Amino acid sequence: MPEITKITHEVPEFIKHERSLLWYIVAFLIAGGLVTYAILSGNFLFAVIVVLIGVIIVLTSFREPRKLSFEIDPMGVAVGGKRYKFTDFKDFSIIYNPPETNTLYLEFRMPLRERLSVQLGDMDPNEVREYLMNFLKEDLEREQESLSDILSRLLKF
Length: 157
Known about the structure:
The structure is a single chain. This protein is an alpha+beta fold. 35% of the residues lie in helices and 28% in strands. The chain has four helices and eight strands. A hairpin with a 3-residue loop joins β5 and β6 (101-108). The longest helix is centred in the N-terminal third of the chain and has 20 residues, at 21-40. It is elongated.
């Protein structure tokens, strides 16, 4: 089998969830209740934050996710034009549970830095895993996606 020198693919910027009219009605009622509570309690900053979150959700629901270039080569990982060296990462893990998730997690060495997660889409996770094992340690402890990813999927954010 020939040696793979790099992996390139296009990955979605984010997963676009299909939301029903009922979802929007429930979200509007919850947001309305939170804004009402915020105003009655005099917490106007919270009211502004709730409104801004609502606007962002509505705007992103009408936008298709951009396709980002994704590349792994001996120099590191590049996502959407931003390059990371392998020395920036502590380890990696891949959560593959079709059809819900096919996600690559790259843990940064710096403790306060958020992990990098990449939706692999239709990529073969075994090919990505085999290639990354040449450069990084695999975290075999991680068996499910992050809590924020689970909540995002379940709440359709």
